[in-house]
Design a protein that fits this description.
By secondary structure, the chain is an alpha+beta fold. It has a domain at 2-38: 3-Layer(aba) Sandwich (YefM-like fold). It is built from four helices and three strands.
Length: 83
Amino acid sequence: METVNMHEAKTQLSKLVDKAAKGESVVIAKAGRPMVRLVAFDAPKERPKKRIGFMKGQMTIPDGFDFKDSFKEEIEELFGLSE
């Protein structure tokens, strides 16, 4: 584990970050006293985004089913279209 003083850490931050990313810990000291440890960040892996069609093949719609005609009255009532 490498220990560097604050001034050196400021001037060589990019190199120190590269070292930490490769798995090496770096301790940053102030006036000879260890203050912080620079280590690699383990970010959670991104989950795949859900896409349209993810339930394809998991349900069936009967032949001849017409959504618009089946719920026409309810839709008209909900949107104030009924007379």
